[in-house]
Amino acid sequence: MTETASSLRLGVGESARRPDAVLKVTGEFAYASDLWLEGMVWGATLRSPHPSAWIRSIDVGPALAVPGVRAVMTHEDVPGEKFYGLERKDQPVLAVDQVRYQGEPVALVAADHPETARRAADAIVVDYEVREAVTDPRLATELVRHQPVRTGEVFEAEVVVSGEYEVGMQDQAFLGPESGLAVPAEDGGVDLYIATQWLHVDRDQLAPCLGLPPEKVRLTLAGVGGAFGAREDLSMQVHACMLALRLNRPVKIVYGREESFFGHVHRHPARMRYEHGATRDGRLVYVKAAILLDGGAYCSSSPAVVGNAASLGVGPYEVPNVLVEATGVYTNNPPCGAMRGFGAVQACYAYESQMDRLAEACGLSPVEIRRRNAVSQGSALITGQVIDSPAPLADMLRELESFPLPPPAGDDLRGLPGGVSQTTHGESVRRGVGYGVGIKNICFSEGFDDYSTARVRAELVNGEPHVTVHTAAAEVGQGLVTIQAQIARTELGVEHVTVATADTSVGSAGSSSASRQSYVTGGAVKAACEAVRERFGGLPVREALEKFGPVEETREFRHRPTFPLDPLTGQGDSHTQLALCVHRAVVDVDLELGLVKVVELAAVQDVGRILNPQALEGQIHGGSAQGLGLALMEEIQVRDGRVLNPSFTDYLIPTILDMPPMTMKILENPDPAAPYGLRGAGEPPTLSSTPAIAAAVRAATGLRLTRVPIRPEDIALAHIGG
User: Fold this and answer.
1) Where is the Aldehyde oxidase/xanthine dehydrogenase a/b hammerhead domain positioned along the sequence (predicted)?
2) For 33-75, how does the pLDDT look when each residue is reduced to its tens digit (9 = 90+)?
3) CB 35 within 8 A of CB 222
4) Integer Cα distance of 139 and 289 in angstroms
5) Which of these, 24, 279, 326, 507, could form a disulfide with 309 (CB 3.0-4.6 Å)?
6) Residues β-bridged to residue 180
7) What pTM value is reported for the model?
């Protein structure tokens, strides 16, 4: 799993080639699901078919009678603590006396063959007493978190617009299912090779459940086939380790696609009510907002998601008077947690829809209403936190508006929505243009001790200077391995750089989420390289290594402190860094069939400083694609707590045919507090693309369309009714 970057000759600011790129394109890259060890057996999980039920009894006898079965385990076999969790230990390793969502793990099986394991799991007899499930978050009584943000006293205005908005449950839809291999060790511990986003937090949850000290639970990052937040929580990690320790032999677990939908958290569905008040010339006076987030059965990262939704709940606009109420609740729906955009996505769709309504009410263009209220450096957020680095939102909007619009579709039917199926000749197709603006926090917030550790070693290998960078930061497809090597080459002037496989033998690097790794792990690698360079005493690298021998330094990097939001007023400097992205969407809509074709997406984003131009463009394309999915097609359909579409046949994600050409302008206004002045870039495009597309569809149809994803029937039925 070691990534060698000796063929990469470029440093910070250049499009260095990714060392895993060719292997991934050719299908030779080893993902976690490809792991194999002689003598291993296969694990499988029995999951609850009910969203809410008491467990009266579990009979494992039929499973043990299946030839080839090696072990069956229930909650009674958990060797240590029976509960774990990211922020609260509320999630059982295996259901104890009840199940709280459809798909909750109830029992484990290990067998010589994966099909045998699955068949044996199905043979376990569980006596459930089904009870009524709480599935409507508006009726839920158990809170995960309530966070208000209150400032100002004036809640009257000349122009007032209000609306209610809804965001469906989106899945991260990574292509590599949950998988890993647990190997028992001679010291009584366990080595786990796993696709994850956060090695150390996995370890810190696993060890107590396994009844082991942390040093006996060793994790190594296996190939990760996408993440987007869904791998922050445990899935099969603890189950594979339990079976391996029970049998004293390696155990591999790989979820199928359907099980994957039940095996990880999703984006919180949201119901939101907003009221905006402004002067007649469009200056915001106040915003009231009630944001309700369905956290599902367990806590996961819901408290942080609620905090983000509250603090960023009115967007990047100057508003003197605010009353935001953000609430997360427990239900018997699937658990929800981290997904790209993390609470800010849901709020962005609502406040941007409101800004369009306000523009209409004030007789202004969608761009002008946003320009008049845009934050800039020195502006205060609704939490009182002052934006102390460049935030050129008004300029970004001007730049976006100046991009030329794409030409009409013309006579080629392939350019029309549904045209490849000859469903239209353009007679009911209308074009629309819409805009979206988003603001996202970068790194962890609200006082979390957010840091990363890097170990850098310089030595002569075959007479040539060589540097090895070792961190626990998870490469989940975003290109972090490449960035670490670029930083080492830049700081030490050494061409040959190896980025060692991430594992828990080095200090924590935190999670590959919150667009934080370039900032925090990049900062740690930079600091460790600087320490190595200091040891050289000003000598050239080769001469220093010949004189001193190998030089190794380990450094931690922390960003500036943040603080919790006041629980009553929501005031506080809760965020490390803020990032802006703006989108313009052009769509063609078939009013009769409800089909939508996104003709073009244009984006302007300020990234502080570009570390790798090609990788950065990929992040903006990818974030925009996920925003398009949320706008038009992606939703986990949940009815009475049951998932109706756990497959890529019925859960639709954008393909290359759905993604339009993109026009982009990337701005560099360095943040003086960040390494190299960089600004995290992975999440902001996901925020602003969704409301831009929704606004464009509204412009084409004349419909209010207050829910995403927008379905064909939302358009077609309204057209027929009209």
Assistant:
1) 26-132
2) 999 999 999 999 999 999 999 999 999 999 999 999 999 999 9
3) yes
4) 19
5) 326
6) 194, 253
7) 0.96
